[in-house]
Write a structure and sequence with these properties.
This protein is of the alpha/beta class. It contains eight helices and five strands. A five-stranded parallel beta sheet has the order 2-3-1-4-5, sandwiched between helices. The N and C termini lie close together (about 10 Å). The structure holds thymidine-5'-phosphate (TMP). The site of thymidine-5'-phosphate has 16 residues, from helix 2 and helix 4.
Length: about 210
């Protein structure tokens, strides 16, 4: 079995973490070895960097510092967690990856796309997900769910609504620019329906 790298993307409260676990469970019932991971984080060092990013005031970091922290975490995550799993023939399901940097730090915080692309090419060369599922839902529903969850990691939730509207549009634009890699999933549906839509797309894509 060849390892495949699948990422889940979307704004706040889209249900990515739940769906990443469900997708991994379904892969395992098909006897496909699989690792679930997340960004920022996914390796001990990257989880340390995550703590710096997800706590505190929205203005705690200027946009470029934030972007570099994210790519520092990503470099460690890819080298220590993702690549070894893919080399061992496992599927890797990752809750967020580089598309989140284009959306949050690019569209959200005004860093030019070309700047992010240059950093991406230094850090990752041409390493990209094989498939990206973009969980799309209206901002007010997503933020409502995220607030109801009452999690501690609220730094990005606390950016204003216009920021979150830019993110939603940015993810949809990414899907339009990379139609072979990206599938948009309607995340307003119930958890089971979303899980089914994801499995339909993944199984079709990889012939599982
Ligand atoms: P999570 O809430 O999905 O676990 O992600 C943590 C936060 O990190 C989320 O609010 C989005 C943010 N983030 C970025 O701003 N840029 C990135 O590249 C990544 C991976 C996450």
């Amino acid at each position: 079995m060849i390892g495949r790298f699948i990422t889940l993307e979307g704004g706040e409260g889209a249900g990515k973490s739940t769906q990443a676990r469900r997708l991994a469970g379904t892969l395992q019932t098909h006897r496909i070895p699989c690792l679930v991971t997340r960004e920022p984080g996914g390796s001990p060092g990257a989880e340390e960097i995550r703590k710096l990013l997800v706590h505190g005031e929205p203005g705690r970091w200027d946009a470029m510092t934030e972007l570099l922290l994210l790519f520092a975490a990503r470099a460690d995550h890819v080298v220590r967690t993702i690549r070894p799993a893919l080399t061992a023939g496992r599927f890797v399901v990752c809750d967020r990856f580089t598309d989140s940097s284009y959306a949050y730090q690019g569209a959200g915080r005004d860093i030019p796309r070309e700047t992010i692309r240059r950093i991406e090419s230094v850090v990752l060369e041409d390493f990209k997900p094989d498939m990206t599922l973009i969980l799309d839902l209206p901002v007010e529903i997503g933020l409502g769910r995220a607030h109801a969850r009452g999690a501690a990691e609220t730094r990005f939730e606390n950016f204003d609504v216009a920021f979150h509207e830019r993110l939603r549009q940015a993810f949809l634009d990414i899907a339009k620019r990379s139609p072979d890699r990206c599938t948009v999933i309607d995340a307003t549906k119930g958890e089971d329906d979303v899980a089914q839509a994801i499995w339909d797309a993944v199984s079709r894509r990889f012939g599982l």
